[in-house]
Phenylacetate-CoA ligase (Falsiroseomonas stagni DSM 19981), 458 residues
Amino acid sequence: MQPGSMVGFPRFLPPDQLLVRDLLGQLRAFEAAPPAIQRATQAVQLGSLVSHAAAWSPFWRARIAAAGIDPRAPFGMEMLTRLPVLSRADVQANAAGMRAHVPGTGPGDVEPTSTSGSTGLAVRVERFRPLYKPLYEAASMLDHQWHQRDSRRMLGIYVRTVRDADGTRWGPPISWFEAAGPAFLRSTATTSAEAFLDIMRERQPAYVATYPSALRALAAVALERGATMPPVSQFITSTEPVTAATRALARRVFGARVTDRYSCEECGWLAHQCPVHDHYHVLSANVVLEVVDDDSQPCPPGQIGRVLVTALHSYAMPLIRYELGDLAVLGDGCDCGITLPVLAGIEGREREFFVLPDGTRRSAAFNLALAEPGMDILEQQMRQYSCGTIEVLLRAGRPIDDAGRARIARFVGGLLDNAFPVRVRQEASISWTGQRKHLALHRVERPYAEEGRAAAFL
Ligand SMILES: [Zn+2]
């Protein structure tokens, strides 16, 4: 559906809503443009961001100069790879110097946010609200249109950190442009999968917005009960990776399609699932997304690598080649009519799960540095091989002896009901690419205790 054909538009929209409608129109035109035009447009946007960063941020001025880039010269996409990867530790250590506020930037223009991942390093960034917010909302509408959702139908929301609500409606930006039908919200923290299924049976939502792990829990309970569930049109997911098995489960138990979105707290939407296929299209108008190997060289399609993002709207605190800590695989083109780059799969996200022998999943989000504070653990990777064996790789500031490795093995084994043998190895460095035989891959870059205490570890 083209935005111009949307029915039920209020005749007069406030300026912020007009801006979102205008941006949405631009995104719709951009998604079908020849890839060479998309790249040329990105190069212009990137050049603008780089020259802004060089002008207003001491950190970026030095980094851009060291890369031999003249911020006043026209920018070519190939120049991007001259800049080093920006790690989470870089952002933590240089937050003040990374700011690029022009004089006159008001407090309302800058939106601080902090990643609250269950693992890794808590990172505080500042988003440039005048650009970030309308782009975020336009990209939300884009996802809504790609997947042809009918907002007059019932929406159920089952996520963390919401207050339960009944008798509510679809919210902005969708409600600005379309008739907003009924919705209800339940928190995954306080409502069990059993209780949410009961509500689904009663209200029969056409759409359920939730996490893949919660979707699996709902499907497991429905199968256990053996009762036929009312059909769901789409499970709208985000935050965790979606496996082919989860998609198959949604189809089998609810007759539903999973429509997934890929985002991060720092940069907003990164990619939406293709309207036709299960892979993703990168939102190149908002972000430059690279997939690189251990030497920071681009991975060809089909090869798993580290995700680097450059937020084209990050004028308050530029994020250029920022390493998210995710692994992904680029794909070849798509036949759906959208010419945006294809992301074939996203793997190795922070919230991963081990699979127990009975098929249930258990979170791998535990931090061994907290269990063993004396070991000076700096990085951990846990792998589950298809035979079930768990392997724990550790990088630490001091040698870990046999007794220490045995304690770690007992600790991890105990968390998984001692269902699997656990091997523990200490490594000088840990690779996050290659070796894709394992099912689960869980990363703790640098341990932290609580968000507020993260800085104490640096
Ligand atoms: Zn497509």
